[in-house]
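Trying the structure run again after the queue cleared.
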Amino acid sequence: MEEKQRIQQLTEKIATEGFAAIILADPEAIAYYTGYEIEPMERLWLLVIQPNYRPQLIANKLFQFTENPDLDLDILWVDDNTDTIEAFMWLDHFVETHEQVKIGVDKYWPAGQLLPVMSYYSEAKFRLASLYVDAQRGIKSEQEQERMRAASLINDRVMARLATELLPTGPSEIEACQALERYYQEAGADGGFSFPPIVAYGKNGADPHHESDHTRPQVGDAIVVDIGCRHQGYASDMTRTFYYGQVSDLDRQLYQTCLEANLLGIEASQVGQQFQAIDAACRDHIDQAGYGENFVHRTGHFIGRSAHEAGDVSASNYHPVEAGQVFSIEPGIYLSDQTAVRIEDLVIAQAEGPEVINHYPKDLQIIPIQDH
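Done. C-alpha cells:
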C-alpha cells in the first residue's frame, strides 16, 4: 500500500535525524500519507509519526472518513470541547524520558495550536521539519505521475473547448471562468479547480495574477488563459495565450520570444541539471530579446497534490533535478497597461529526458470573432 510505505519511509528518515516525533498539520500532507481527504478549518487534524510507536491521527469527531485498517494507525478522537493540550498527553512519556527531546513540526501548523503545546512542553525542542515531507512528496511515484497525466489530459480538453467554443463568442472574463467550471465537470474532473482560473484580456494580462472581471475582449487583445483542475487528488496547470481576431506585430514578436524561452526551458529540464540553470535558459533568452525586466516571476513551481508545492524553478534554486519531480516551465513577458504573453507546460523529469504532459498546441492562435 503506497500510503503505508510513505509513512515507513518518513519514519526511518526522522529516526536518523534524531526526532522523537514529527507532527503534520498540512491537510494535503496528511492525505498523502493516509488517503484521508479532510478540510479541518480551525479544528485539530494532525498526523503524528513516531519512530518507536505506531503513527497517530488526531481527529475531531465531526470528521467523517472510512478507516483503512491497512494503515495501522492509532486514532485519537477529540471534539470541540477538547483543550489543545489534552490532545498531546502522549508527549509526556517523551519529555519525561529524554533530556532534550526533539519534536518536528510542519510549516502549516497554526500558531494558535502550536504555541500552547510549545509553552506547555517547554523542555522539548520543537524544530521545523517540513523539508523531509517536502523532499518525499517532490518525487512522484509512477502512480502519481499517471494521475498527473490524467489531470493534464482533462486540462488539454478543456482548453481546446474554451478556445473553439467559448472565446469566439466574446465572453467577459468572469463568464469564461464560470463556463470553465462546467467544462471541467463535463470532462470528468472530480475535484474542481486546482486554483482560481485566470482569463485576462489585453492589458489585464500584464498582471500575472489578474483576478478575472467583467472586461470583454477587444479586437487585437492578447488573451492569457491560466487554468487547471484537480483529478484523482492531483492538480493540473497550463497557460496558453491567444489573440482575439487579429495579432499585432509587437504581440507576434513577444509570443515568438516567449515560446522559444518555453522550449529552451523544457530542453534544459534534464535530470542532474540545476534548477537555476533552467530558469537562466528561459530568462537569458527573454533578456537578449530586450524584455528581461518584463519577465517578473520565477520560471516555474513544483506541483502535485497542490498546485504549488515546495520547490521551484528559480535563480535561487541550486538543487539538481531528480527523476520523478514535476514542475512548470512558464516564462512570461508583461508590458504594463499594454499586453502580455505567458506559455506554461508541466514537465515530469525522467531519466531519458523531460516529459511534457500538456499537449494542447503552442502555435500562435488567433481566435475568430463570431458575429453577434
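The chain has a mean pLDDT of 95. Worth checking whether this holds up in the mutant runs.
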